[in-house]
Design a protein that fits this description.
Blueprint: H1 2-32, H2 37-44, H3 47-53, H4 58-69, H5 78-101, H6 112-134, H7 141-150, H8 152-184, E1 189-194, H9 199-213, E2 216-218, H10 226-236, E3 243-248, H11 255-263, E4 267-270, H12 278-281, H13 284-301, E5 304-308, H14 312-315, E6 324-328, E7 336-343, E8 348-354, E9 357-363, H15 368-383, H16 388-396, E10 406-409, E11 414-418, H17 424-433, E12 441-445, H18 455-469, E13 474-477, H19 483-492, E14 512-516, H20 521-528
Parallel strand pairs: 1-3, 1-4, 2-3, 4-5, 5-6, 11-14, 12-13, 12-14
Antiparallel strand pairs: 7-8, 8-9, 10-11
Helix pairs in contact: 1-5, 4-7, 6-8, 8-10, 8-11, 9-15, 10-11, 18-19
Amino acid sequence: MIADYINYILLILVITLPITYKYLFWLYTIQLKEYRWDRFKEYILTPQGKSAIFNFWFFIELPLLLITITIFFDKNFEIIIYPIIFYFFLIQNIFVIWKIFRKKIIKPKLTGRLILTIFIILFLISLDVYHIFSYNFYQIIYAYIILMWILAPIVIFISIIISSPLVKYLKNKRIKKAVNISQNIKKVTKIWITWSYWKSSIKEFLSSILEKEWNTLKTPKNQNTELSVSSLVINKLTNKYKYFIAEMWAYKIWEIKTLWEIVNHKYWFLTSVWSQHLWLFWNIQNTKTAKLEITQKVLENKWKLYINWENQNIREINFSKKLNIIKYWNEKWSDVTYKINSNSDSNTKFTLKYKNKSYNFDTNIIWEHSILNITWVIAFCLDIWIVEKNIKKYLSNLKQPENTLEITKTKKYTLINDSQNLSENWLLAWLNVLKIFKWNKVLVLDDILELWKKSKEIHINLWEKIAKEKYVNEILFTWANFWSFFKKWLLKGWFDEENFIKNIENIKKWSTILFEWKRSRKYFEALISDSWEE
């Protein structure tokens, strides 16, 4: 009996590190999806998500589970099963230690919800193990270990479901507190920036100008959920601020109502409606419907809307004629129009027309779609009586938001870090701008996520266009859910096998390199530091 207990203790010791690693990975992934089953489900249905579950190890784990079941019929099988399980996890320890050595460990951000989820997981496992040993169910311990290993995401979501009533209560309590504070603080002019993409860029452009004129509060980085904005309202929003700029995003139609209650805004910036997050809204029409939810409140309070009239999906929304709308685009039927007079790899000169008056501006922002977004920022600044000469001064020192088309020149390369966001239109717009740059042009690319049933179609169309237009000379994929289709269309165009880079060290000197979406960031950071690791 003592020998058995020693064996069980040794087994627990050998499984601790790999199980901890596996649960940290899935906790990170689920946290990235904001603990939402709808977003996580979309992830696991992609080739990337499937490979995370049905990988090399899975085809070893499944037979192991079947083997452990034999102990139910004959306990003598334990003498065979124990070393199999023990050495399986011993190999897993080597694998994890190698990951740690290479600094490849993925871990979630420490938050209150994460701690609560981990506590429930540990409680459930402890309760199970207690009953297994208390009632002498030793024959199921091996099957239990393998099940907890294979079903890690399910175990985490069970813990999330258990904690959901408490989380929902605390969340609603915090949101209600934020709503009360926002409604009572009437001296602060509140601005809401929302929808598919460009939210962070416009927020940063606008805040960088407003904060030079008045005390201005903005939501940090890309924290745009109802809970993160509520926390900011509770902790920082006071009457000492003149303006409060909130970047916000909803995942369901009905969630829009909660957002405008938190912000209680006077101005609304609608950036775009496109294919992003189709998994959550199912189709573009539902996304448009979500926009119309807010317009009635805007109408009641006589708020003002600044909308991107370039976006076809926005143009198709049936806005009430009674709404106070400012449309911006480079077409004559818009309220705000712009014309680029000249641009280079470091400067853009453009003319803006608004309310029958022309303005000439000069900025170090070079991307045309950034100029598009700057035009409505300028229109807003003119509406709130910021003088023209000040706007010109602020534009001359304007910077791209962090990880959004930031240009860094090293001794070897011109690096363009755009790892914060990625969408179909966004990518094509920035690739088009690469024409400004000379020499070899390289694209380091991650996948576009949450496109639901449109994912395959959008990716195929995107890569067919890239192949035909010859935007870049070489491509390095950080991950490709549709790699076979990408390669097919690229090879149909002018790409050859040598145009696909496998090692970042092979990038030619003097190249201009565009980094798109999150997994490309590690390559950017490696080249900045003049070191890289595959």
